Fold:
Amino acid sequence: MLPLIIKRIAYALVIIAGIAFVVSAMTKLVPGDPVDVMAAGNPGMTEADKARLRTQLGLDRPMLDQYVSYLGNALRGDLGTSLRQRVPAAQLILERLPATAELTLWSMVLALSVATPIGIVTALRRDSPIDTAGTVVAVVGVSTPSFLLGVLLILLFSVQLGWLPASGYKGSVIAAIPKAIVDGRFDLLWQKVRYFLLPSVSLAFGLMAVNARLIRSAMIETIRQDYVQFARAKGVPPRTVVLKHAFRNAIIPVITMVGLQLGNLLSGAIVAETVFAWPGIGRLSVQAITTRDYPLVQATVLITAVLFVGMNLIIDLLYQIIDPRMRHG
Amino acid sequence: MSTPLLQVHDLRVEYASPRGLVRAVAGVSLSLDRNRILGLVGESGCGKSTVGQALLGLIQPPGRIAGGDIRFENRSLVGLPEREMRRLRGNRLSMIFQDPTATLNPVMTIGDQIAELFRWHRPRMRRKEVQTRVTELLERVGIVDADRRSRAYPHELSGGMRQRVVIACALALDPALIVADEPTTALDVTVQAQILDLIRGLQAEHGTAVILVSHDLGVIAETCDDVAVMYAGRIVESGPTAEVLARPRHPYTAGLIASRPSITAPDQVVRPIPGTVPDLANPPVGCPFHPRCVRAVAGCREGIPALSPTREEPRHAVACPLAA
Amino acid sequence: MADSTLSQIAATAPTESVHNVARNQFLKALRRSPKGLAGLLLIGMILIGAAAAPALAPYDPAQQVLGWRFLPPVWATGGGWDHILGGDNLGRDIFSRIVVGARTSLAVAIIVVALAATIGSLLGAVAGYAGGIVDNLIMRLVDFLLAFPFLLLALMIMAILGPGFWTMVLALSIALWVNYARVVRGEALRIEQMEFVEAARSIGVPGWRIVLGHVLPNVIPSVLVLATLEVALVIIAEAALSFLGLGVQPPTPSWGKMISEGRDFLYDAPWMVLGPGLVILMTSVGINLFGDFLRDFVDPRAER
Amino acid sequence: MSLDRMDPQEFLALTYAHARQNVLSRRSVLGGFVALAGAMALPGRAAFAEGRGGTLRIGRDQEPDSLDPQKTLIAVSDQTNNWIYEPLVRLDVDGKVVPGLAERWEATDNNKTIVFHLRDGVTFHDGSPADAEACVWTTQRIMDPATASPSSYLLGPFDKAEVVDRLTVIYRFKEPFVPLWIGLSSPSTAILPRKSVEALGDQFGRNPVGCGPFRFAGWAPDTGIKLVRFDDYKCGPVAAADEVQFLYFPEDSTRIAALETDEIDVLATGQAVPVDAVRRLRQNSDIQLLSRARQGLRALVFNLNKAPFDDIRVRQAVCHAIDREKVLAFALDGNGQIAHGPLPTTIPGYSKAVEALDYAYDPAKAKALLAEAGQSAGLKLSMITSDMPPIRRTAEIVQTELRGIGIELEIQSLPVGEWASLSSKGEHHIFFMAYEYNDADILYAALHSQGSYNRSFRKDAALDKMLEAQRVAFDPAARQSLLDDAQALIMRQAYWAPLFEPLNFAALSSSVRDAALRTDGDISVDSAWIEN
Structure:
């Protein structure tokens, strides 16, 4: 197991260095630089002013030079300084990462906790009215652009009904859980949860649909396996057959997909972050690109990639727990 | 003798498929006494495995038992509530599947998979005792170092070992009837013999009745007391194994025997049966075998021939008017 | 000794025109499947609508008339049959824009899926068949693209090439081919083990011909199913890119852009979003129904 | 003629006039100031009174990049820093120069030096004194290359500052500088506390310390930027609200929903009130909507280096082809004013004479001009625009209008980075000009052959001369006459096709009191308060 992890980490490092290189190269291909963007709103700035600023910001160094020193610094944990916000890029990311990470987490939890029962039931009752209803919900889910769903949710639950806040992030739910349990302050917990509800629903809706379908087809595939039949032939009750024999095997392919989806969520949260004014790294990275804040672009892409690779590493390890066949070789 | 252990009367199983209704079993009747081994033989898709599944009540949508009756230990299994049926499965009736690799759950240890039977059928048995019984069973099916092996996962065992585990599961609660569905097909030839010996030995020891489903006449000949030949969802010939194999009456049985290479007479010409198994969603009119039958006459297209005893040997029955 | 008899019998089965049989079976299965038929009907309607767009659209989709601004649709008070789905913020007929916009949205979806499926299948088949360093290179590229946050990649590509139809096609194709490569590689690995590939290799058929002639045709069913389902995903992705300002350039209408623009008027003129939202839903429902049917059909085990 | 020989009093008068013209012209447009909640008396910078207070929650469409005033150039950062820091002088609600940290000032040394007399007893929020020493250190920092200040250009030909005594500081310029107060009233040049800046390093931009009416209290992604009233504020009346929060909502519908659901009290600055939402907000009786003319313009700029726009008839044809009433109605729902020249009516220096030179909507004449220029129908042209929704939408309307005379316009609507860099390459036919500026000198940037913002690529010697001359003309009348000539020439030559002047909006919930819309689009955060 350990050599495998080392091998995976080595791969991951190569991939991440590659991503850093591609981003560096792309930033050179992109027309316009941060100074152009700054000058765009300030017609009074002359070409001489711009040239002076470019030199002061170090934008005139050759790309390879910048890349090599960047990699060196990155290995030491220095991800560079934002050209626009003038603070370390790592700081900006760390401020916003928890909001995105937690939104991603809850969306996935929500998506899976709804998708799993739906997927199982529709697989067991294939071609029944329940299955059809499940299909319809899934199709509507994947066919609704998440920004539209987000705006609709706000109009309904905030503006019309006034039940939930329209937007914003008021701190971590996970951090509030211990306090809720120890001090019984569930009201405080609810104050945080309220803000999570609409964004996670809008983000989870499509995923829920996709995962319900995935789980359904994995379950259909598993149910017709001999070992499930054999379990029934042994007189194991249906609930146990489904959960212990079929589901545990069915989630193996689903877990791979969930790993990929988590990666997409990290960057896909951009849309939800925009709609719900969520202070996450998705918005930060979009802003970094539009304002040509290259060090920040580099840093957000790198951090997202590292997270993605890390998450998939964890999922590989999870595999070994769930699937004994993966433990050797 | 008292009533037979198992009596199947006019069993019908149908599957709904996008291509139409498939009559996988179209009226099968058979009976089996304790301590006997019955062979069910036929080409793939003739419905022999479906009969085995129907016996254990394992037919699932889109399939259903469309008619007939199954009497086992004096109760009718057709229409028995699922809860009752479940009490019988693995307990009085058990099953050995074809591919031991696919039969065992890859994510559970083999010990757990055997122990499960005790858990659901002998809920009051203590954990420790279950463990002892599991080890005992594994030893009985010829697995050495059984205690350690019970903690292994299926992929850590060889194919033959896995099938032994499956057999251990089937035997665990001393069932009255074991349905063995092609138990040796997926195994190496040398292992096949061992497994057949094992089944036979255990059967003799416990007096269990066995239905052995196989496409291989060699396996049937070696193992079974009686044989039933199935074609297109029906039994076309049945009787004591020696009698049927020595004097096949149905042209299909004869074809099966002729198409089988013989070790004892290697120079004998192998003659395959021409044509293919009929589409059960759309079976031929009349005797289902007539399109492939070398002896077919015009009358074969009219009416499905019934299984009737031959004059010489009443236990030998055949469903072909030309042969009876 | 045991295995031979019946498989031999099966092997002698006549191999009449396999294609005809397949086609007949397909049509027969389709006739029996309400799901497949309904899906095909919906897709057909939308494709015909898109093809006949200039004839079908009652007005020029770019025509702006002051009196048509925020004109309610026919079912709302103030609406009329002249403009079934009403008018948008720039006084354009929404129905005409949907009909003409179908061309953009469907073109993006079809081109992207075709490109991604072709490139992905080829690379996946090559990786699976060739193995070794080629496989390693291709799969590392796949890992690379999976780890690169998609929307950021799309934004950067767009920043380099400028927004527009082909930039969008490129960005989406780059993101999507990876899925096909993964699926096809897995299938190729499986097929490579099969006897007919062994046989072809043993008589000296060159590697590329084995890939083209044996591996690819065998993975087509899985690719087809994946491709069908991704068409709907691409239509939604187009909407998301439009939301981030990466959509097609005006005056070309597209469903995604219409929804993205309409969201600002959700309160005053909800019909601006309703029309395009419904056609996306219709298309997606059609494709998913048909895709489900296709999956059941190509998956032989589904019939048992 | 030259400024350095002017009498100092006259010089200062000129600089005030420069600023005051802004005020007058702004007032003339929409009344500028909107009295609220039952014709309340003008709040101005009235003394802090009983009953005022509350937390003012302001929703914006942008987020500041840095609150280090020397390290930012974007408006929303300035509009935040404006309440934390104290510049030497301030612009009041109507854009008039009023004392800030400096109580009074005079010009000396041939108008190249300004002597500032600072208020006594002013301290920064960190307790250190805001004195002459601090002023000098502040100017050294902004000019230091290590600071890499993008806003240092606002100080023009600044040389250095010197301490005279504790409360007297002199700012030396290399030459007399007319737009002096634009830079010196900007938070970019506000006085910084050396102690805190040096202690905080690059975190100063996240933990700003100034001597303005509000003290910085926090900036977190979840709570936005929080300011609390600085009770020791010495440079004017103490602010009315107890606390101010600036919250960032990138999505229009969400921001409006937040106001409607009382999660915030104010929408102001930038495009916080999108023009699309004005209808909806006007219908809501719980919301007060403020509007005021913006110092900005939307126009089409023809690339004269590229055929067919080297032909004046084609340019005139395009001008005649556009129905600006319709553009205004479609793009801004009528919330704006039709433009007639290269300057909006709100910028001092606007020439009323251009209204007579207007190209009226006349598609027939446009077609005739095109034919005359030898252009057949089906002319294909390209236009670069930014991708801001109201601007992109305007471009789409222009596209339809030009189709009416047989021109097929291809729109490239680009995010700001590409927009800035591609438009300067000059490969487009038309550039969609959208500028905000507070001085007629924008004409130099946008039309002088050396102008940094010249997207018509015109090299017109006569025009260059006029634009150079207006830069140093100290007599308002003389400058106006030069500007009149320049604007007339631009319109006669049809270098630009002006479209419209947009408005600024702010929306307030009904509990907000004493808020006025400033010329820069912000509300008077220091006078506003919340009634319980």
About this structure: Chain A has a mean pLDDT of 83. Residues 35 and 41 of chain A are 11 Å apart (CA to CA). The first helix of chain A runs from residue 2 to 29.
